[in-house]
Amino acid sequence: MRIRFASLAPQTQALRAELDAAMSRVLDRAWYILGEEGEAFEREFAAYLGAGHAVGVANGTDAIQLALMAHGIGTGDEVILPANTCVPTAAGIAGSGATPVPADVCPDTLTLDPAEIARLATPRTRAVVAVHLYGHPCNMDALRAETEARGLLLIEDAAQAHGACYKGQPCGTLGDIAAFSFYPSKNLGALGDGGAVVANDAEVAERLRKLRHYGAEARYVHTLRGINSRLDELQAAVLRVKLPYLNAWNERRRALAARYDTGLAGLALRLPVEADWSTANRHLYPIRTPDRDALAAHLKEAGIGTLIHYPIPIHLQPAYKDCGQGSGSLPVAEQACNEALSLPLYPELPKSEQDEIIAAVLEYFERV
Ligand SMILES: Cc1ncc(COP(=O)(O)O)c(C=O)c1O
Question: 215, exposed or middle or buried, with CB in 10 Å at 0-12, 13-18, 19+?
Answer without folding.
Answer: middle
